[in-house]
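In this supplementary section we document a worked example of the pipeline. Step one takes a protein sequence of length 391 as its only input; no multiple sequence alignment statistics are reported here. Step two produces a three-dimensional model, which step three serialises into structure tokens for compact storage. The input and output of this example are shown verbatim.
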Amino acid sequence: MIPSVLPTYSRAPLSFVKGEGSWLIEADGRRFLDLGAGIAVNALGHANPALIDALTKQAGALWHTSNLYQIPQQQALADKLVEHTFADTVFFTNSGTEACELAVKMARKYFYDKGQPERVEIITFSGSFHGRSSAGIAAAGSEKMTKGFGPLLPGFVHLEFGDHDAIAPAITDKTAAIMVEPVQGEGGIRPLPDACLKGLRDLCDEHGILMILDEVQCGMGRTGRLFAHEWAGVSPDIMMVAKGIGGGFPLGAVLATEDAASGMTAGTHGSTYGGNPLGCAVGGAVVDIITAKGFLEEVNRKAGLLRQKLEGLIAAHPDVFESVRGAGLMLGLKCKASNADIVTAGYAHGVITVPAADNVVRLLPPLTITDEEIAEAVSRLDAAARSLTAS
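The serialised model returned by step three reads:
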């Protein structure tokens, strides 16, 4: 008999009932150091007092009106994002998947309005993850994502990640955009080198096409800058944001330049819940904290400390771990042992990690994790590795 919850997840046998900062508490009372943060969502930790305050104040006033009316909290958050980024305008969604849908529509509508309706193709890369909607899985293109869900949405050109020589020849008079994650998350914490991101920007400019960045997982301070592309000194035309922007509340956004968004006029897109007062009140508090003086400097300092300790962990367990990669507090342990076994062993030693492709274990702790918690987390990872070696 099918369970009442559709069985599309392979869930760990854990039921968390409370969160405190970097910690999750199981129903049986066990405490786990959370290096997953809800897959980079709980960027400011669990039960953050500032977010609780923003949410409860707004909850006591107004939850939802729909986008038929002005929403002051939405306007305030949009203004903050425009102030701190390349963007001129913002559309709010509930998730990264919804942000992907709009990014694809926006790029195609842009060229339709320019009198080039044939420009519908979007170049994407292997290992990418852009959500599980029809557009998202078609953009990723992997068999794991698409098998059984045809016919797929056409208009995506898939290239191998890292094959720079293939990109320019793939641009044709049908190309609308290049879409890429500055750091692949699900693909195994694979950063795109700054020089490559600059090269993609140059190619887009040379051919008059749009650059779409998916910063759903690597954005909102995760790499030590507000958005990962800032390290390369380039700006996209369109950017997808979600996960950390709501600090745990479902919230996403598409940020764009005035030019790239020029085709999206009244009636061309919408969302019933997107940009509701509750979500935007929390999102505004998240942006205020992450952009406050000194916050990102602390993220970078703690990232250096974590990486240093992980290098020691790898040296101590050469049969379990191979290397560490990533940026900021978006790090991946490339494993020699099975990454699934390491994640499971972590559960037994009270530490939460997240598996990814390429036999990688993702470490995505709250950006507010303390030095002491970093030391304790690596100690628990060490114990998990020792348990695997002993077995």
